[in-house]
Design goal:
This protein is mostly helical. The chain has 6 helices and no strands. The protein starts with 5 loop residues before the first helix and ends in a 13-residue tail after the last helix.
Length: 98
């Protein structure tokens, strides 16, 4: 089981935040790395996501569907995402795909 690397994830979120909006290749590369560094422990991923501010959560939101797939469409993960994102009702995190 691969463990989450929160330091690397925070670093990648910062990098994604400063990336040029039209750099699709760079964004895809960062998303791939973010997914990898999430590991595959559902509890750890949920705990990490619950610590993020709105800006960071939106960047992680780009891979929510991929994380969900990695976790076999876990209902626990989706419920946790709904709780975490409920603090921001004006933002659409596209949870219907999780």
């Amino acid at each position: 089981m691969q463990e989450i690397n929160t330091n690397k994830l925070r670093e990648l979120i910062k990098k994604r935040d400063t990336l040029h909006p039209l750099d699709d290749y760079g964004a895809a590369e960062i998303r791939e790395k973010m997914l990898y560094y999430c590991g595959n422990n559902e509890k750890d991923i949920i705990e990490f996501l619950s610590t993020l501010n709105l800006n960071d959560l939106e960047w992680m939101g780009e891979i929510f569907e991929d994380i969900s797939i990695k976790l076999n469409k876990s209902k626990t993960f989706k419920k946790a995402l709904e709780e975490i994102t409920s603090k921001y009702p004006h933002v659409d995190f596209c949870l219907q795909y999780c």
